[in-house]
Amino acid sequence: MESGDGFLERRKRLVSNLVSAGYIRTKEVEKAMMKIPRENFVPRDLLTEAYIDTPLPIGKGQTISAPHMVAIMLEELMLEQGQKVLEIGAGSGYHAALTAELVSPGGFVYTIERIPELVGFARANIEKAGYGNCVEVIEGDGSKGYPENSPYDRIFVACGAPDLPKPLISQLAEDGVMLVPVGGRYFQDLIRARKKKGKLLTENRGGCVFVPLIGEYGYE
Ligand code: SAM
After folding, report:
1. What is the CATH classification number for the domain harbouring 91?
2. Residue 157 alpha carbon to ligand 1 centre in Å
3. Model-level pTM greater than 0.90?
4. Mutation test of ligand 1: which of 137, 144, 214, 216 has the most ligand atoms closer than 8 Å to its C-beta?
5. Average pLDDT for consecutive 10-residue bins of the chain (220 residues)?
């Protein structure tokens, strides 16, 4: 087993590369990605690959997203302390933990996952990383959102949707921002939308590749 210092060195190198490449643009995102150990969110047999900038399998045909994609999404969301955030697709819990770090203190992250085994995986990882008090992992179909605690300041979908899911639009707060990979089952465009006076202003922030959003407002 590799020492903690080995991981720290690799994390520093990865984060520095993400800064040089322009994926990380703010000090806040850089600090969060330096603080949270990605090795704690990948399966044990893939520990040595935790700091390669690539998605990795986490079981059940799902992946933890590549670090550069997570960095892009954290920057595009313009997260601030105190915000209430909804994530669809908890997976390993890594992206939710980073989001919690960026909205702390005072913020909260709700993250929904449809695969029960991954709900347990994400919960355990988040707890171990110390974010159990500001992240709740919910089992269910996130394409319907989570109306119980709406409206949300920020909503992001960590899987590819055929369109902006309607329930998420209505659960977004006025002036809130939402980020959704929209397109086909294999390739999508990252769409950022801000709600202004009840209307959505959308921008295409570039191409991306995500596993599909499966559910009532996603794919079958
Ligand atoms: N954010 C994750 C992380 O940090 O590891 C990676 C997300 S992974 C690319 C996409 C996840 O979305 C998968 O775990 C998948 O099971 C989940 N998913 C797909 N459709 C869903 C739905 N309707 N509701 C909730 N989760 C869903």
Report:
1. 3.40.50.150
2. 8
3. yes
4. 214
5. 74 98 98 98 96 97 97 98 98 98 98 98 98 98 98 98 97 98 95 96 96 96
